[in-house]
Amino acid sequence: MTLHIYDTLSREKKEFVPLEPGKVNMYVCGPTVYDYIHIGNARPVIFFDVVRRYLEVSGYEVNYVVNFTDVDDKLIRKAEQLGTTVPEVAERFIGAFNENIAGLGVHKATINPRVTENIPEIVAFVQQLVDRGYAYESGGDVYFRINKFADYGKLSHQNMDELQLGIRIEVDQRKENGQDFVLWKAAKPGEIHWESPWGPGRPGWHIECSAMARKYLGDTLDIHGGGHDLQFPHHECEVAQSESVTGKPLARYWMHNGFININNEKISKSLGNGITVNELLKTVKSTTIRYFILSSHYRSPLNFSDETIAQAENSVERITNCIGNLKHRLSVAVSAASEAELELRSSIGAIQDGFRSRMDDDLNTPDAITSIFELVAVANQYLQRPVVSAEGLEMLIEAFALFDKVFGLLPDEEDGEMLDADIDDLIVQRTEARQSKNWARADEIRDLLAAQGIVLEDTPQGIRWRRK
To answer: Which stretch carries the motif 'HIGH' region (predicted)?
Structure first.
């Protein structure tokens, strides 16, 4: 089976064929950096990280762009509240974003372009729209004529009459049509601004992504992604802007993830139920958060609660415990393989084929997770054998590692936790202390391991450990 992706524009699953064989250009709308990201923002961050990982494991070279909106009304208000400047607000929360995605085990994008670093390209893009009659200046602002673009509404599948329900229309005599959207905003006194042919101002929200996507990835993207809430108006406006300039499709595949609710309620400032990733990472492991996000199909809604997080934590623990058992047995395994290893290789191959088949079906992560637990079952059954080979154990460990390249569900030994080798060394020291009846030293090592969340268990093969 080859990869098929559900395309928001066509409303159907389509075989994935990039413009250039072996290469994928992917653009995902990034954060407006005026505050910490919340759990709802974490869903596209993690999901599209997995999309990128899976494409890379599948042999593609991925050019992955995630932008930063570092000038906006929200940043201006935040700077006023904090008594600082817009650039200082942006720098603070870009740093926080980078720390948070690292904490979530997310690989950094190929590039994170900033609006403020691409003003000349944005101004030039707006000028092209003006020159072609798709945009007009009024009172220092520049607006896009949506009536000029015949396909406006094709992405979100709305007609012009229905658009009244999707756009908050304000009475503005400067617009030719109340639904026209802003490309360039005239600066108010004291606001951050840049010079332009229409006077001092700054970009509108929608135009920035059109300009940066074209600059860094070309006229047509392979994949354009983001949250469901971006379909309209943001992505709809991007389509109109970009295709009015290039005459080409903006993206071959549009991907939009569903919402996250908190205890079955929509995340809302009025409800005060937003949970920032910054706070969440203080109490919940990154692997648990990733599992929670991936346990539901990306286009479906997802509910965050203490119960769903606990379920995710238990599931990740089952996987890590299994791998811990494999690594423990590897230290005492025999070198010779037998008929059992031939059967094991066949079972692993079938599970890996199933994993790829499920991922190829519109990145179906919850079904693909079942492949991981199929591997857990096979591994646990193999571990029941009185004699296992190093070859068999290594096959299983490598199979888990391949899955982890895509999902990132295994703990990083460099994330501040005690390394496996150090734990093994301490267990040896504790065993020697007990044998020499140095109970104080044995208890000291036990307490040290417990403080690191390491649980010791006696097994017929000796002491083994696992992380809580």
So the answer is: 31-41
Rounded Cα distance, 210 and 242, in Å: 6
The whole-model pTM stands at 0.86
Average pLDDT of the residues of the chain = 90
236 is in an annotated binding site: no
Nearest to 191, CA basis, from 308, 76, 22, 70: 76
CATH of 4-257, one of 3.30.70.260, 2.60.40.10, 3.40.50.620, 1.10.357.10: 3.40.50.620
188 assigned binding-site residue: no
Q: Is 29 annotated as a binding residue?
A: yes
What pLDDT digit, counting tens, does each position of 433-442 carry?
Answer: 788 877 766 7
Q: Is 328 annotated as a binding residue?
A: no
Q: Where do you find CATH 3.40.50.620 in the chain?
A: 4-257
For the sheet containing 201-203, what is the strand order? 135-138, 141-144, 181-186, 201-203
The ranges of the chain annotated as CATH 1.20.120 are 314-407
Per-residue pLDDT tens over the stretch 242-275: 999 999 999 999 999 999 988 877 766 555 567 8
Residue 269, annotated as binding a ligand: yes
